[in-house]
Each structure stands twice: as structure tokens, then as C-alpha cells.
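This part of the workshop introduces the protein records we will be handling. A record pairs a protein's sequence with a compact description of its fold. Comparing a sequence with its C-alpha cells is the quickest way to learn the format. To make this concrete, we reproduce a full record directly below:
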Amino acid sequence: MHMRNCWKLLALSLVGSFIMAQSLDLAGSVVISGSSDPLPGATVTVKGTTISTVTDGDGKFRVSVNASQATLEVGFVGFKTVSLNFTASDTNIKVEMKQAPLEVLEEVVVTGFATSVKRQNLANSVASINAEELERAPAQTLDGMLSGKFSGVQVSQNTGAPGGGISVKLRGTSSINGNSQPLYVVDGVIVSNAEIQSGVNAVTAAAAAGSRNPQDQPSNRTADLIPSDIESIEVLKGPSAAAIYGAKASNGVIIITTKQGRAGQTVYDFSQTFGQRSIIKKIGTRRFTAETAFATYGQVGLDLFNAGGGQYIDYEEEMYGNTGDIFDTTFSARGGNEKTTFLFSGSALNDEGIIKRTGYDKYSLRLNLDHHINERLTVGLNTNFVRSVSDRGLTGNDNTGATFGVTLAFTPSFIEQRPDENGVYPSNPFNSANAIQTRDLMQNRETVNRSIISGKLDYNIFQSATQTLDFNMTAGVDYFTLNTDARFPRALYFEAGSGQPGTTVQGETESRNQNLYFNLTHTLFTVGGHTFRTTAGLQFEDLDLNYLNIVGNDLIEGQFNVDQAASIAAQQQRTLQRDRGFFVQEEVNLGEAIFFTLGVRGDSSSTNGDETKYYTYPKSSVSVRLSEYDFWSGLKDSISEFKLRAAWGQTGNLPLPYAKFSSFVSVNIDGSGGLVPGTLRGNPNIKPETSEEIEVGFDATFWDSRGTVEFSYFDQKITDLLLFRSLEPSSGFTQEAINAGEMEAKGMELAIHLNPVQTANWGWTTGLNYYRIRQKVVDLPDEVPAYTTGGFADFLGRYLIKEGFSPTTIIGAERDANGDYVALGDETPDFQIGWDSVVSYKNFSVSWLLDWKEGGDVINLTKLLTDLGGTTADLDEPGASSRLENLGSETTQFIEDGGYIRLREIKLEYEMGRNFLKDIVYGKLTYMRFALSGRNLWTDTDYSSYDPEVSNFGSVSIGRSVEVTPFPTSKSVYFTISLGL
């Protein structure tokens, strides 16, 4: 389908008749029941229309409607929605609103392009979180704040390095070789969450054994988003909910809405946080005796042991024992009038790492504007600029003995590695590097400058008492540059052994993601309170990612400019991608009792074999509120709301860029540059993977709105998997990407929210979410027999891709009687539970979040390296030596249960009373709060290494749970002062 046909479809899908009626002007105020305090920011809507306004700073509003009478609905987060009937004779309207313990079902949820639905009508499980819940305990990055808060969402920290490194899975693994991360949408604009490699693989040679992944421990770009700027987050977890986003939504969609201005007096908010972070857990190091030093290292070891007087140096404490200081400052101003509203905010974060000379500094400015040009036309502009500088150290896997952890694995505690009084670092007789010297002299710095700018235009083409026609345009650009400056002076011991000591790695990445959307929405209101809303839209997206990496070797001491190097090597990767899409959706609301949706999304992409072809992704859903029918009247007192829901939908996962083209590699031919075919043959028929999902469930509200339950069961099928088949040598290639095979996933989610206590002085709200999923490979084509992937080698633990097995099954050297692989573990957890609570007494409150992951196995290769280096803490215990004796025949000893129970967040807060505030700053302070909080303060786990949340390979689809001497994760405590003017 060509784009001109999309425009025709867009125009033909919106039809209606126009009816005029008598005009009615209503004005009044909204106050809090019992106190008569004004309630600014409340939404006042004329029921059955799209006419709405927001109360000003004094709680006042004015609204006009073309009718002789009207019903107003007034809503505000945390208060019960009020509906009142008015006529032309009503003047000076006063609306009193009562606080509600749980108003989950009346919450409005963003579900896609220019669409939002009341939660009470949703046919899918959509997880939501607001600003207050998000900011209970600070975190380095936004995605790190999501852990444990949602069912169906698995958040893992790939590395503890400053600046983040987080992977997010929504409802399991939806691809084997394709993209594995959710789609991120900020204020309606798709933004990048790319992981950009630093290029230090040129020093570590981590990928020297043939791995496609350079294992540079990269950060991901959601780290650039500022948590204090966020108003709400919605998570569309499966294809049935995310189908409107089409070919990029197989991994789910995370929709982020930033804070906006409000009409009324300008409100100023300021907060200052002071904190400290330290390592969550140390694994310990071996304490040697003369006998064990000789047995492990021979006469050299015994001589060094005696020379040091049998000393014990805790190098783990030396390397990871730094207590990092944290300073986080945020401010914002929001206000405006009936025509123009604004929000201006800024933040500055200085966060030291637990390894000396590592840290993360981030600075941000945001300006959001909305202007009502007239009653029909509104324009808006959201701008955000972020600059960050992170020093990430040198951790993870390597094949040169350079990274901190690998070096320490081969550094016995009795030798001296610290500098002497002259600043001279001793050499390491058992490894090529001195880890303390490397830490003190090297640099691995990453500087990011990012701008996310979006503009919108909302135009009401027509409006009457019975129908509206609205046009919306959203345009945005996400642009960032990422510069890597890694320096390894020739004085480093491991550099001296490289043959060309003195290395610099200079990386420059430029990314531009441009979005443009057009949407038309026709809403028809009929007799009986029925609503028909038709939405159609077009999407245009262009991506340009340019990665340049230059490595210079043999630099003289003190020089790090590339042009001063005796040897220079350059690598460049350019990705240009053009995506086009359309969608049509019909939503029918029958008297707030039955709500169903039909829709289809079409996408074309330059990554497909045929970039002109549109792949379609349909969706349908229905929800029925049984509690709205007469037969439910006898149950209303106990179960006030009960809804059954079902949804079906399809989404896609685009092929890898340029998979349709055969690759070429550069070579040197008789001193001249040239190109020869690479190993991967292009496939002109490559297309997106397809995910299909059926979801059923129910939602209930009970106990006078003090309790809610949400239950969902889902069944997913993923077809046309992106796989690699081997080719005959005579073809000149070794592999080709194809679409074949099938996976399935089945799971359930449960979320319970309660408000057991709500009195004048006491309050308690609590919530529990539960999630489990089971996956397996259903079918593989004949040309792709069962194989292993991820990890390094079978005997070290890898992942088995085989029919009938989970795609995250871990295998090793062990075989059964038939010579087949034996499943030794599974990365996928048995289940996950999150429990959060807030208990308040007068002006005090305490909140916490417990995160429980049961099962989910990890390949612990840190233990293997310390075993090989003779430094594992338990090596002198009975049976420990058998791990190396059985290496090559038994892998089970390095596969461990990665389950845990973790106190993710805890917070104690006190808010000053109003009477006290009247005497401060001439009564200008609206609030003042003091909070003591912590993150990851307690963990109960059987995992023997630093943290079961780890991934040596980053956010890959298969093979995340592999640990190789990572940057350890940290726990942190904070003290925060917040005030408003």
C-alpha cells in the first residue's frame, strides 16, 4: 500500500453530520470537601463532549457548551470524580471534591498516538506510575527506578558503572537475534535507547575469541532522562496493547509523559539531595598461608609470601571500597494563565562511583510551553537539553589481563600492588597488569550532549453537542552526540607488553531520530451516552546513526592525540533507516458499560527486504463492566466495580539494519585499500518478526473503593523469527539471515492494591504485584538445527536454542546417555513479586518496596577466573578444588540460582505543618519536607558473587545472565530537603 492510499484512507475514515445547539456558559470553583481549600489543576469536562478546562490557582473555572443544559465531570488525581447537572439558570457553581483512597479505575491512561482511555474501560493490562510513586527513593537513572513496581516487567542492572546500564524485558523474551528492548516514547516522540560501545575492546580484546559482542559495558540512553521531570509512565506490555505501534512494538512500549505547566500563580519547587553509595556485597578474597602460597604459586609464591611477612591486603576493599558522595539538585517553576502555561526545570547531579576516579555528572534544562491561540487551536513545545560526563572505569571480560576484576582475580592478597612513597607501582608477577596502577592512571570517559525537542498542534476542526473533529500534528527530533575519550598511558604494565605501548581510543557518535505524526480524530456522541471515536494517522520516522572509532597506539608518555600515534586504526558504522506507517482505530463506548476497539497498523521500513511493502498489524479488544448492569446491584456494596476484558493484537520486530545486503570488509591488497565479501550474505526477502498475543483478564474494585484487583493471562506466539542459517563454503559466505521458526510464551499477572486504613491521622496503602511466564521454542527450520548461543563455550555455559526448550535454557559440558545437552538452568525466573506500602501518621510517612525474584539462573564466570587465579575466598574449603579439576566436564558448579529478595526502596518523610510555614519567608512557603531514603539497602540471596543482576553482554536478547568480573552494583542512602513557593 502506497502513502497516497494511506492519505485516502485517512480522509475516508472520518465522516459525520454537524448539529448546532444553544450556547451555555458555566463558571464556578472547585474546593476540597471539609476544608473549603481551593483545588487548582482539577479537570472540568462537559460529559459527552471533548470540551474541558482546568481550574486556575484559586480553583476557579469557566466553560462554554452549545446546549441548554449540561453535565460536568470534575476530576483530580487522589479525589473521587464528581458529576453534576447544570442549566443556564445555575450561577456561581461550587464543586466539593472528596479525597479517594484508591481511584485506580477512573485514572486516564495514555494508550497510543493521540489516544487515551479511562482505566475502567481498558481491555488490556497497562501498568502505570505517577511522579510521586516514581520519586520515593532517588536513583542514578530513570529506568533503575522501575524495578519491582510492575507485574510483567523485568528490570536488570547490567553493570554498576556510573551512568547506568539497564535492560528491561516486558513479558519475557520475544526474539532470539533481533532487538530486545522496549520502544520508548516521550511526549509522543519515539526516542533512542541505544547502547553505544566505547571501543575499549581495542585494549581488552574481550571479543578476540570471536564474540560478536565487544563487551564494553555500555550505558543505555534512557539514562539521559531526568526522573524529576516525569509526570507519569505507562507500560504497554504485550502485542495486544502495543499493536498501534506496529513493527517496533514486539518488545512492548514505555510511554513517558513529562510535567506540564498549569494555569494560575507560578509555583516554584526545589529539592536538594545529599547521599552516599557503597558496594552491596563483597565476595571476599583468599587468605593465604605459606603452605597454600607454595601449593598455588610454587616457590615464587612462597618467596613473595615470606617477603611480605605473610601480609593480607584486601584488594577488593582497595578497589571497590570507595564511599561515593552524591549531590542532586532540582528546581522547577510552573504556571501561566488561561492562554499560556509553562514549566521550566533544571537539575544537576554529581555522583561518585564506588571505584576511585569513577563517577557520573549530569546537568539538565527543560522548558515546556502550551499556548491556546483561540478556542480551537492549541500549540505546544517541549524542549530538553542534557549533558552528562561519566568516568566508567575498566571492568568486565578481557583477554589481555587489563580490566580491574580480571587483574584482581590473579592478584594474591600477600603481594604489594599499592604505590610506594615515590609513587612507583610494583609489577604483578602473576598477571600482566597492576589493577591499582590501571585504576589510577587510565581514563574511560563518556560525554553525552542530548536534545529532545517536540512540538504539537491541536486543532478543533468542528465541534457541536454531538460530535467533534480534531486534528493533531506532533513533530520531534531526538539528537545526541556521544564522545568517548579512553586513555591508557605507556607506563601501564599491560601496555608495555602490547608491543606498542601507549593507547588512545577516541569515539564520536552522532544520532538523529526525526518523528512526524498526523492524526485525525472524529468523536460522535449519541443518545444513551454512547460514544464512537475514530482515529486515523500517519507516521514518518528517519534515523541517522553515525559511529566513528579511532584507536591510536605507540604514543609517547603524556600524549593522547590520535595524530601523535605511530599506529592508527579507524572504524566507522553508518546506519540510515527510514520508516513509514499508518493506523486506523475505532473505539466504541456503549454507555460506559461496554468498550471495544478495532484497529490496524501498517508499517514499511528500509530495513525490510522490500522497503515499499506495508506489513499490517491488526488489533481488537473488548471490555464489559458487569457492575453497570442491574443484576449487579446486589453486589455493589461489596464489589463496586467489576470488569471482564479480552484483547488480541499483533506487533512486529524489524530486521537488523542492512540484513538484506551482503556485507563487505576492508582489506589491504598490495599496500592499497580494497573490499572483499564478508561472511554474511544478504537476504532480499528479509522481513519483520511477528508477535501475536491473546490476553484475557478481569479488574475489580471493592471495599468502598479501598481495594482493587487486576488479573491477566496472556498467550503469545512469535513467528518468522530472525535466525542465521549456515551456508555451503562454495557460496563464498558462511551465514545468511532468514525468517523462520516459532516461539511461544504464556504467563499470568496479578496486581492488588489496598487502602486498609484511612482516618484523620492514620493512613496505609499497600500493593502487591505477581508475575510468571513460561516460554519455549516451538519450531526451528531444517536449515537451522538446534544450536547454542551466548556465553563463550559450551563447557563454560551457554544457551540452548532447541525445539521444546525455553530459549533461555542454560547448558554446559554435561550430556545425557544419548549425547544430548542436559538443561542445567534457566535464566527466566520462576516468578517475581513486588510489594510496596506507604504508612502515614499526621505529617510523618514511611514507604518501602520489596522486590522478590524466585529462580532465574546465572552463569558465574567471576568464580571461574578467581579459581584459575587461586584467589577465590573458599578455595581452602573441602571440595572447592574440584571445580577446576572437573573443568571441561562439569559446568554445574558455575551455574547458580540468581533469585533474591531485595529492599529496593525505603523512605521516611516528614512534612512541616501549615501553621509553622506561615511564619517562614512571610508565609510564602507552601510546603517543606525532609526525607531519609535508601535504595538496595538489603538483599537476601544465595548467589555467591557480587549481584545476581548482571549482564556481561548488555541488553542482548539471549545470554544476559553471564557474569565476568563486573563493576559491582551499589546501595545508597539519601537525605532530601524539598520545599515549594
Q: What stands out?
A: The longest helix spans residues 290-307. Residues 131 and 287 are 48 Å apart (CA to CA).
